[in-house]
Structure formats: C-alpha cells, structure tokens
Design goal:
about 400 residues; two-stranded antiparallel sheet; 10 helices; two-stranded antiparallel ribbon; single chain
C-alpha cells in the first residue's frame, strides 16, 4: 500500500497537499467565526482584519515551538526551519501566539464584545477547525502517523516505515466530539435561562438572560487539554522526547486552567440560575448599572452584554443594554412624576382656593371703598369696575 501523496505538480509548480489543507482550514475558520459573531448580534466586519494577524501569529508560534522541540535536527539543517509546507506545526505554539493577538485585536476593534464572551463564541470554532485541519493537515503531510502498528486500520505515511496509527484521523474524531459537546453545553445553558416577565400584555415570554461568560470556553479547555495529553502519551510520544514532554505538560496545564475558570464561574452561574441577573449585570441590587433583564455585563471587564433571544443570541446590537439602563432609571423618576402630579393637583387646588379668598377679599375691600366714597361724596373710577368685571 502506497503512502498518501503529500505533493503534486501543476505544470512546473509543486503544490503541497498540507498547504492546501491549511488554506482551506483557515478559510473555514474565518467564515465560521463571522457567522457565530454575527448570529450573536455583534459587529462582525472587523473579523477579517483580525484573522489576518491571527493567521500570521499562529504560523509563527506553531513553527517556533516545533523547531525548539526538535532543535538538534534544525540546528543541523537550518534551511528546513521555514519549510512549513512540509508539516511541523505545534498546536500549542499556535495557541500561545495567536490567542493574545486575537484578544487584543478584538478588544480594539469590537470593544462591546467582552473577552470571555468572545472566548465562548470562539471555542466551538477552534474545535471545528482542528477537526477539519487534522484531516487536511497532518493526515496529508510527511511523517503524519503515530506509533507503528499491525492493526487493520493502520496506514502508510510518507517518510515513515511500515503501517502507522492514523492519529490525525483519531484526533479529528476527538475534536469533532468536543465540538459537539460544546454546542450541547451552549444549548443546555440556553435552556436554563431564567424567563423574565412579559414586557407587554400579550407579548411572548422567552428566555433572555445570557449565561455567565466563560463556561463554554472552560469546558473546551478541559476536554482539549486532556485530549492532547492522551494523544501524545499514547500514540505520538516516540519522536523527540523533549517536544513530547512539552506537549503533555501543556495539555495538563490547559486542562487545569479550564477547571479553575469553571470554578470561578460557578457562583455567577448559581446566581444566574436564581434569576439574580445576568453575568455582572444584575447582582448589584438594582443600582441602575446593570442594564435590563436581557443585558449582561462581564464581571471581568465591565462591558455591557447584549440581550439574548430564545436561542441565546444578542438582540438589537449593543444598544439594548443602554436601553435597559434608561428603563431602569425611569422607574424612580416615574414614581416621582406621580408624586409631583399629586402635589401639583393639591397645589392647584390650594391656588384656586387662595384665588377665591383673594377675590373675596378684594370684593370686600371694593365694597368698603365704595361705601367710604359714598360717605365722602367721592366716586370710584369706572376703570376699577371694568377691571373687576374682567
């Protein structure tokens, strides 16, 4: 059985299947990121600019960590360092460089999108891209297989002797499973959303509180960290012990970080389940800073979160949280207006009574004046009578 071809020629141009797989994976990641951000109700036209920087950072980081993990080889053959079209990209190196670039770019280009909410939206995208990239990347490159095997499902890979475990296929199945789990977690969280009161009589009641940010991201970190540790420990740990040990350590650290993230969100999750308010928005006790019932403020950076519909998506862009603030602030003034109206009514009645008393006093004064005038032989001018007639 012949190995999977890793390159072919179009006229005099050599085309590497690994490079094609990378290009298709990056294109899919861009499309899926735009779709999820747009469906969540956030601005999305900034994503292409961010993605260009993320791709560069991911390639540089992935190649750098791969070279460092097998430094003896690349010291002997330094010309092979930039040859990424032949494979040799570290997933953790890509994450290490790309994630900070993505966070900084997102904060600058879309400040209304909180960091943890951005992570929740991106976690399924990353899992889907890794599932696709394993099939179109390592599966189609040199030395892409795992340990030698005599099993029926073993495959032949270029630059590797004998049948090998098809680890890229295993990883693609694992990543696709994690992707499905993350989507199920999203749906489960939406099903638990508290149901607010109907905004108007006869209006449909639907869940609108977004779940606390960071839960989907934390689950993805735990599952993918465990996956990478087990893959490297069971199937891939024969080439370059330093690189293998670093990968296993990174997997453990990523899983631990995910557990810590989930633990820090549990209190917020319980408050959200109890209807105390959205993430960072409703637990201030009605101080007017938390937005409306559908708003969400990330407790880490204080950004207003949008209202979500029955599917947990944001409604009315980034302006709804501000509307909620105005609505919350109008409750107090509304009551004051009612009091002012009642005070005004009382004041009007008092004013009318005082006017009547004043008119009566004026009449008495006029009568006295007329009586005095008659006694003294003086007459009141006609203008006074005309004025009182008016």
């Amino acid at each position: 059985m012949r190995p999977i071809p890793v390159a072919f020629h179009i006229w005099f141009i050599e085309v590497h299947t690994y490079g094609i797989g990378l290009a298709l994976t990056f294109w899919f990641g861009l499309w899926y990121t735009e779709r999820r951000i747009r469906n969540a109700g956030y601005p999305w036209r900034w994503i292409t600019g961010m993605f260009l920087w993320v791709i560069v950072a991911a390639l540089v980081g992935a190649r750098t960590l791969h070279v460092l993990s097998d430094l003896s080889y690349y010291t002997t053959y330094p010309g092979q360092i930039p040859a990424i079209w032949q494979g040799g990209l570290s997933s953790f190196g890509g994450i290490l460089f790309a994630v900070p670039v993505a966070i900084v770019s997102a904060r600058r280009r879309c400040p209304e999108l909180p960091t943890l909410r951005f992570g929740d939206l991106m976690a399924p995208v990353l899992m889907a891209c890794w599932a696709m990239g394993r099939l179109l990347g390592p599966q189609l490159m040199r030395a892409g297989g795992g340990h030698p095997t005599a099993q029926w499902f073993g495959m032949y890979y270029a630059d590797q002797v004998g049948k090998r475990l098809p680890v890229p296929i295993f990883q693609a199945l694992e990543d696709a499973t994690i992707y499905a789990v993350l989507l199920l977690v999203e749906r489960w969280l939406r099903s638990l959303a508290p149901v607010p009161f109907a905004p108007a009589e006869g209006a449909p009641v639907s869940p609108s509180l977004l779940p606390p940010a960071g839960i989907v991201l934390g689950v993805g970190m735990v599952l993918w960290g465990i996956e990478r540790f087990l893959d490297e420990h069971l199937w891939l740990g024969e080439d370059g012990r330093v690189g293998s040990d670093l990968t296993q350590l990174a997997g453990v650290l990523l899983a631990v970080a995910g557990v810590v993230l989930l633990a820090t969100r549990m209190r917020r999750f319980r408050e959200w389940r109890a209807g105390a308010g959205a993430d960072g928005g409703g637990d201030g006790g009605g101080d007017g800073s938390g937005g409306d019932a559908g708003g969400d403020v990330d407790g880490d950076d204080g950004e207003s979160e949008p209202e979500g519909d029955a599917d947990g998506n944001r409604i009315d862009g980034g302006e709804h949280g501000d509307d909620g603030d105005e609505d919350g602030k109008e409750l107090g003034p509304g009551a004051e207006d009612a009091n002012l109206r009642s005070v005004s009514g009382a004041g009007a009645g008092a004013g009318a009574a005082s006017d009547a008393d004043g008119a009566g006093a004026a009449s008495d004064a006029d009568a006295s004046a007329k009586g005095t005038g008659s006694a003294t032989g003086e007459q009141e001018p006609d203008s006074v009578g005309a004025g009182e007639g008016r």
